[in-house]
Amino acid sequence: MSGTDQHPILPVVLCGGTGSRLWPLSREGFPKQFWPLLSQNSMLQDTVARAQGPGFSSPMVICNEAHRFLVAEQLHANGMQDAKIVLEPVARNSAPAIAAAAVLAHEADPDAVLWLMAADAAITDTAALNAALARAAAAARAGRIVAFGMKPTSPETGYGYIEAGAPLAGLEGVAAIQSFVEKPDLATARTYLEGGRHLWNSGMFVATAATLLAELERLAPEVLSTVRAAVAGATRDLDFVRLDPVIFAGAPDISIDYAVMEKTGQAAVVPASLGWSDVGSWASLWEVSPKDAGGNVTQGKVELYDARNCYVRSEGMLTGVVGLRDAVVVVTDDAVLAMHRDRSQDVKKLLEQLKANGHKEATEHRRMYRPWGHYEGLIQGSRFQVKKISVKPGAKLSLQKHFHRAEHWVVVNGTAIVERDDERIMLRENESIYLPLGCVHRMENPGKIPLTLIEVQVGSYLGEDDIVRFEDTYGRT
Fold first, then answer.
1. Do 67 and 15 form a contact (C-beta atoms < 8 A)?
2. Distance CA 235, CA 357 (A)
3. CB 36: neighbour CB atoms within 10 A?
4. Rounded to 5 degrees, what are φ and ψ at 444?
5. Is residue 335 part of a domain?
6. Domain match, 31 and 101 both
7. Which of 16, 143, 186, 342 is 20 to 30 A from 7 via CA?
8. Can you tell me whether residue 188 is helix, strand or coil?
9. Is 283 domain-assigned?
10. Is residue 312 located within the same domain as residue 448?
11. What is the DSSP string of 351-386?
């Protein structure tokens, strides 16, 4: 976006979704916004990159507290060292998250123009986006809350719709909103496509902090009063603003559409064609991805024979597909999904079934990310398990002990410094150490390359909750 003599636009990225319809890749522990689905960057990184440069201030990201270090690491990798990361202790839908952003922005500048967007949408036409954003910002400065309405290209039943009303005088390319419409059935969606008045609701909004707070005060006072108190009780450490967990948990669980947009007289819409998709399902990911001559999209170690219009993705093992049409096959290291592409919306129902039947793969990946790096389960048996642990350069684990297990560490790459009770020991490649049950210990990587080690746990209980932390660089308890 080109520079302007107006206040810069504040990008506010809502990063709390779980992307359940993109299971088994997207899971609660590592949802779709952190995956590189359409480029070499994650969807969060692509989203933030669209809002950098002249005319924009440093972004604000609202995220789940459990994902705080993922967000910080990916923003830093994008060169965003000064982003404000606001932590939701619990998910309370979009209205409380947006209220928190408005309260924090208003403290610095009541006239700040907020561009509110999800972290996990695709946009291919950046020039059209910037033009639409300029129109929306002008309307926002005139006191409007502006939605981005995407001109539909198909009778989509997975999106909500906005019915555009009359053009607004003095605001080029901006219309009043006649109504908001829930996700329609196919027949209704076809009439919307043919009628030309209905637009996909993208979930992006532009408004000033002052306008948002005024309308929240009038239309959703309980949301605003609770969030104000949670912001007043917030603590700040490292890159993070931690909203008061007890107070924020009491905020109503409601979307900004229901809380404000469907009630306010200030709502407006900018119709646009941006190459937008919410990438909410495997079918929509197939639609927006480059295809081969047979209409197939492949990712990873994949071989196709006589396949047409398929989406096939492997995160590791060789995956072969023969003779399928309109199929989705997704392979991770611990789960496989195979279905007709038309059934993409039903993945959420499958996920509910997996949770009900106690499958941990419903929510957790084999690889689990931590602020210091990650670990990956390799083998598990009766009273033992084996993990591979990777520690980033300069990072360290917490000072801790366990009541039910002993551990053996073997360094396979890099250098480790290990604290074991009163000892401090350096380990190099192919060296090992034994940590008996109950000893106080920690590990750090003093080197310039990642530290990789194999951990063998032996004991009567091997759960991750068997841990007592005495000291932690990252503020965990």
1. yes
2. 39
3. 12
4. -140, 160
5. yes
6. yes
7. 16
8. helix
9. no
10. no
11. HHHHHHTT-GGGT--SEEEETTEEEEEEEEETTEEE
Q: Which domain holds residue 388?
A: 367-471
Amino acid making up residue 19: G
Domain match, 425 and 376 both: yes
Task: Please provide the average confidence, as pLDDT, over all residues in the chain.
Answer: 93
Q: What's the burial of 85, exposed, middle or buried (CB within 10 Å: 0-12/13-18/19+)?
A: buried
Q: Is residue 22 part of a domain?
A: yes
Shared-domain flag, residues 305 and 229 = no
Could you tell me if 76 and 43 lie in one domain? yes
Q: Are 336 and 354 in contact, with CB atoms under 8 Å apart? A: no
Do 251 and 296 lie in a common domain?
no
What b/e string do you get for 258-275 counting C-beta neighbours within 10 Å, with b at 16 or more? bbbbeebebbbbbbbebe
Instruction: Using a pLDDT cut of 90, give the percent of the chain over it.
Output: 81
pLDDT at 196: 87
CA distance 375 to 28: 17
Give whole-number Cα distances, 213 to 87, 221, 328, in Å: 20, 9, 44
pTM of the model as a whole:
0.86
What tokens were used for 330? 């997704």
**322 and 462: one domain?**
no
Clarify whether residues 131 and 167 are in a common domain: yes
Measured distance CA(107)–CA(252) in Å, rounded = 23
Our count of domains for the chain comes to 3
pLDDT tens, position by position, 419-430? 999 999 999 999
What's the pLDDT tens digit per position in 106-126? 999 999 999 999 999 999 999
What is the distance between the alpha carbons of residues 59 and 68, in angstroms, rounded to a whole number? Answer: 15
- CB count within 10 Å of CB 326 equals 17
